[in-house]
Amino acid sequence: MALLSSSPKWPTLPDYFHDWALVDVETSGLRPGRDRVLSLAILTLDARGNQTGEFSTLLNPGCDPGPVHIHGLTSARLAGAPTFEDIAPQVGAMLSSRVLVAHNAQFDYDFLAHEFAHVRSWVPVSRRLCTLALNRLVGPATPDLKLGTLAEHYGVRQEKAHDAQDDVRVLSGILRGSLGAAEQLGLSLPLLDCPPRQDYKPCVPKTPCAYRNPGRLTPGGSLVQGMKVAITGDTRVSREELVARSVAAGLNMMTSVSGQTSVVVTNDASAASGKLRRAAEAGVPLVDEATYLGLLESVRPGQAKGAVRQSRGTELPVSTMSAPPESLPGVPAPRIGAPPASPAGAHQLLAGRRVLVLGGTHEAAVEARARAVALGASAAVNLSASVSDVVVLPGGETDRRMSRIVTLGLRVHDADWLLAPARVPALSSAGTKLDAAQVLVRGAVIDLPDTGAAWTVSAAWRQQTACDVDVVAFAVDGREQVAGDEDFVFYGAPEHPDGTVRLATDGPTEQAVTVNLECLPLEVQRVVIGAAIDGAATFSDVGAIEITATCGIGAAPAARATLDAATTERTMILAELYRRAEGWRLRAVGQGYDHGLADLARGYGVDIAE
Q1: Which of 3.30.420.10, 3.90.1300.10, 1.20.1560.10, 3.40.50.300 would CATH assign to domain 14-193?
Q2: 270: exposed, middle or buried (C-beta count within 10 Å: 0-12, 13-18, 19+)?
């Protein structure tokens, strides 16, 4: 496909007409709320791409500036700079009523949101656009999607990397080129709603319980470090003090009750509370406050979570390391169909190609994508510049993207093309990039290189999807159970307290989980990444979900897989990262379940209120 590498003209599609505020921040670290903004640059554009304003400044964060070797901002340089409170009114005025644009926009947005929270306000932005997410949709013929690489591709001169003022100038050129490429493809912009929020607060890390749950409190027995404790009803000692004393003693304080709860503290066992009802159903013992305070005086030592880890270099048995999710209590068996067999000798005939399937029934489309993958291609879920071939099944000729496909001169085939791989023409278009990522079928496993950088597993689905899809993650031990509710990362708790697992939303049809494998606690044997559909919709309404694994922001995908559930599933396990000896592996899973997210979470040991 021949796409322009740069676009001198601003797009003409009315859907692309917005007032823009392009933003770049340099920060003292990578965690919003804990780390601070050191440098900020903003460039505003009108709906036609004309510059309407510009602002840049250094900021005195009142803390250590962090990695000076990257951004060059020393404490001495920042000492005389204004604080964020000094510039907040001006920044707010420039952002207001505009779409915020940034490369990896959630990062910049979250840092700004926390800075505004520091001055008792909130970031006045209702929508944002991530140029990284936009270019993932565009799929330009570039080795990666880093800012410098895209600048070269779109003909923008980069003078000083990691300088906010230069980066935001470069970003304006990348936005212009990206919008032009997106217009050629007829893409909807991945604008993400982000209404003003007042719940951003400085990061106060929660210290996860360091001990394994030893089970229930026995009659006349002692509390043991790691026991899960819930409190319900009024208490004589303030709830905050009671929780603080319990945490200091090594207990795991919970806000709900499940079958794994060790004991519930209550001064009124006859009260009609939900916690007491669930405790009765699960047989969880009750104690009153006075008894509990007495037990707190002599809590027995527990087993540290890291103590169950095998010595380094010792490989756990395969049955332990790769136990399938269907073995979990409360998780019903998934539906798994075998992919169609490849024609004899046809393996890898479509290697490096990206195939988009249009039309057909859900089952026919699933089969066509599986055949393409079996021939070595990767299956796309959206039209992009990286698509090399389109397979049109019955009804696909009326797809709204067909006119674009014809205009772009893409190769169009019927379903029989996948049955006759000998008739595969050579790729000749200079604008088409061979897909270098390793293509994984369902159940396939790859070893992850030990690079020291965090790994990101992204999930994307059709832009035309009407229902909401939520990506989630579970950090589980060798028994496929979370150690605490904080090990469940989802839209309501998008970051693990220690920062090792984070959820990012990059657009309406793309979410990603980033995992710092080196910093995960030793007892975490695997990170399970799933997706759930809100409401009554099922994955037949969503269609295929494409997952990609990358190491570093904007890096080229190391692996990708396109996963199809059947028809009635509402949750699906997409992938898992798991320990193998001293390294980590990635498995493409693609197992769907009929139940909802709450049942899936309970199967991994998360306390979910009814």
Answers
A1: 3.30.420.10
A2: exposed
